[in-house]
Amino acid sequence: MATIKDIALQANVSAATVSRVINNDATLSVSEETRERIFLIAEKMQYKPNRIKRMKQESELANKQVGLLLWLSTDDEKEDPYFSEIRISVEKRCDELGINIGRVIRGNNVDLNAFHGMDGLIVVGSIDAEDVKKIFPDHKSIVLVNHSLDVRGFDSVKINFKQAVEDVIDHFINHGYSEIGMIGGQDYLYKLGPNNKGRAFVDNRQIHFEEIMNKKGLLKQEFMVNGDWTTMSGYEQMKELLRKPTRPRACFIASDPMAIGALRALHEQKVNVPEEMAIVGFDDIEVSAFINPRLTSVRVFPEQIGKTAVQLLLERMEGRETAIHVEIETELVVRESCGGSVLST
Question: Model pTM?
Fold first, then answer.
């Protein structure tokens, strides 16, 4: 059976160097050529093959540099913590695997050389894929996260919006609500040029809401309004709904921050929730379980989204050729704001 000394003799290095290399000693200063030679000799000599394979993989990962591109600013993340949870999950998973996040960049004015030398790129948000390729041409090493459009050739991770919206509508209908409205948000395909918001398009939640409600013969366009995803916007859009000659008995709101603003507007107008209007939000952020009434919301598992993005990128860096698109399922967390039995807290 081969020993560390046997490997050292073949590699023309000291036994201590072999030991530190195969144990991935981060403090060791040795060339990549020497490191590769030691692993190759150890594999040929069948030195603890399973251990060597694992250590080699860890060593290779430690030399990878991954970039993270986010559209949202830190202030935007504070308004809607869903995106910060995805970012934190990506960073945590990379740290667990020993992958270096070489650069994190936000905003719409990105230098063309911003991700030069990176081995892969994770993009969070609906940023124009053609613009992304300008700063990182290897599209096979790019994972798009929460991108609202279907983009061929790129790996992607997104929420199963259709299932989520079906769950909300079915819950309303099963509890006797047929006059259902929606407060949505305007979505954009963001550009990386300075001060360029890009092309506006309809959010997936609204698309599926209209399709499902139309099939059921329940769609009323007058019960639909759009905002900009903020708490203040939810407040203003609910006041607009309340000014209409007739108003819905239930309302699906496309984000929890908007739902919290909408609840404030209902409270000011002395509209009882859920007796006079039932409310369901989206994202299930932490505060949703602590407001009054506690907010029913669609849980979206941002930690799993982040982990999946890292896994897809790893597979690409290991040589997978075909793009994979992953949809993460959601869960309707029922609380007091929508009526009916409370199924979860």
Answer: 0.80
